[in-house]
Amino acid sequence: MFKFHYRLERSAIGLVAFIILVASIGGFIEIAPLFTIDETVEKAEDMRVFTPLEVAGRNIYIREGCYACHSQMIRTLRDEVDRYGPYSLAVESQYDHPQLWGSKRTGPDLARLGNKYSDSWHTAHLYNPRDLVPQSKMPAYRWLLRDQLRTDDLGNQLAALRAVGVPYTDEQIANAARDAYGQANPDSAEAPGVAERYGEATNIRAFDGNQGPLTDMDALVAYLQMLGTLTDAAFTTETAEAE
Ligand code: HEC
To answer: Which sequence ranges are marked TM in the entry (predicted)?
Structure first.
């Protein structure tokens, strides 16, 4: 063995060839799983895309760094499934660009947060977490209720997501700003279009407690209330039943 290496080091070409061989074994092991990607990502016929308001909320989630303390991925471990619900499937992050799985949990996982609390709970909690959870370490995000949401760029945001594979229609892109307003203003003329374009199951409510002009709070709460509700796949696949 050592003799072999001793001789190999004396032949420059032989050494280079051997390095390439060994490095390509490592490379192949990393790349091989990608050949089965079509079978790895489950199919979910009921999977819907994010609404423009949810996209705006997602951008705020990224802007405020929520991912630094919260993960959005439930692992297959028993204690996680008991605490948070069925473990996350690849298809559930299919339209997440970039994905927000996170790598640290100072606070709890949020992958199945949708419908767990009321909108007013979220609004109050984000305004000051300690009003609801006295021992909370989470920062207060008071400006979310004050700041008006920018919506004129949402059409471009959807178009950018379409460029990386999210199946937005021309109609959804053209109506992005209108749909964002409608989703948080259930009594407005814009509201019915949201259900038409994104499905009856879409939440259409005054998320921050007030109808009228949109705030950052409307967008973020709409996003949080949607988490884990885009598809039932995790609750219906064989793997989930086996749990
Ligand atoms: C410094 C770390 C930290 C940051 C940053 C942070 N959180 Fe939290 N979060 C926590 C902790 C700790 C808890 C648990 C205590 C509580 O409920 O307040 C929590 C709880 C929550 C809960 C309740 C979850 C549940 O299932 O009970 C939600 C929702 C939440 N955070 C959303 C957010 C959002 C949205 C942001 C970004 C605007 C954010 N957090 C930023 C630490 C953080």
So the answer is: 12-35
Tell me, in angstroms, the distance from the centre of ligand 1 to residue 58's CA. 15
Q: Which CATH number fits domain 52-242: 3.30.1330.40, 1.10.1060.10, 1.10.443.10, 1.10.760.10?
A: 1.10.760.10
Q: What is the pLDDT of residues 179-232, one digit of tens each?
A: 999 999 999 999 999 999 999 999 999 999 999 999 999 999 999 999 999 999
CA of 198 relative to ligand 1 center, distance in Å: 28
DSSP letter for each residue of 188-223? STTHHHHHHHH-TTS--S-TTS--SS-BHHHHHHHH
> For the whole model, what pTM was predicted?
0.88
Query: Residue type at 131?
Result: D
Name the residue of 54, 59, 63, 70 to mutate for ligand 1: max ligand atoms within 8 A of Cβ.
Answer: 70
Atom of ligand 1 nearest to the CA of 137: 12
Mutate to test the pocket of ligand 1, among 138, 141, 223 (most ligand atoms within 8 A of CB): 138
Q: For the chain, give every domain's residue range.
A: 2-40, 52-242
**Run of H or E including 1:** none
Distance of CA 130 from the midpoint of ligand 1 (Å): 11
| Separation of CA 113 and ligand 1 centre (Å) | 11
Measured in angstroms, how far is the CA atom of residue 66 from the centroid of ligand 1? 7
